[in-house]
Here is the input.
Amino acid sequence: MISYKDLGLVNSRELFSKAMKGGYAIPAFNFNNMEQMQAIIGACVETKSPVILQVSSGARKYANQTLLRYMAQGAVEYAKELGCAIPIVLHLDHGDSFELCKNCIEFGFSSVMIDGSHLPYEENIALTRRVVEYAHQHDVTVEGELGVLAGVEDNVKAEHHTYTQPKEVEDFVKRTGVDSLAISIGTSHGAYKFKPGQKPEIRLDILAEIEKRIPGFPIVLHGSSSVPQDIVAEINNFGGKLKDSIGIPEDQLRKAARSAVCKINIDSDGRLAMTAAIRRVLVEKPEEFDPRKYLGPARDKLKELYKHKIVYVLGSENKA
Ligand code: G3H
Ligand code: 13P
Ligand code: ZN
Here is the structure.
């Protein structure tokens, strides 16, 4: 058993409590490789923002869980070397079983998500409660989820959103003992969140209703990429074929971050930024074949994107 505390990581409890009082949200950025990690830590150190490093099951499969954990441990030292020991959480994104959550906790994660959102209500409660009981013995924080986001989540495809029902949240939070709650209010994973002609809008009214039922309780928003249209255009100008990709408007996320939303998950925008930079180099300098020559610019673009998110969307600048 490796305790996250020995690795210099923190759980999310105090970060969320400060974010709630301060009217901002903590960035939760996914990573799968070194360049993403460097961009995240570079951006957060330069803006003095706390950060949640997210590892999905897919990331564990792609990069190897041991390497990812050592990278997170390295991130703590890297941040110090860059000049600011920002608080860093290592979080399991979309954990789908008790065993996976337990394994991550024993491996040094400081926070886990148990995503029972596709299960019947009582089964979601039972599974989440079981993870919480284990996690809290190790002072690890737990995120649960109520409501189903449209799109693909945990290999389960949902055609439509099933919005979180405000009348369920109080019971769920009380009976599971979770530390934060992911909700479904119209965000979704990936780069195609709305159909052309649809108004890109999230249900801030449901969020307000949820907040009324569980005042001061940390809320999490998944699927919160904004799919910047200049980046999509850059991808397409350099040979990409992204059609009708639409994200969540940043001003709506900023409003959510000012409320009880304490954690905002962003992955797809980072993928788009890296892809745009790589495509540009490969088209403009076709003679290049050193990966550093295209991964370097991809890392720079990613860092700029994250700094923008921290300052203009999450509001977590200078909160480290
Ligand atoms: O919620 C999904 C995250 O963007 C992680 O995606 O499962 O492809 O690693 P992934
Ligand atoms: P996006 O696909 O909108 O970036 O959402 C990421 C996410 O929710 C990770 O859990
Ligand atoms: Zn998610």
About this structure: The mean pLDDT is 97. Residues 94, 189, 222-223, 265 surround zinc ion (ligand 3) (CB under 6 Å). The CA atoms of residues 94 and 154 lie 7 Å apart. The chain is about 50% helix and 15% strand.
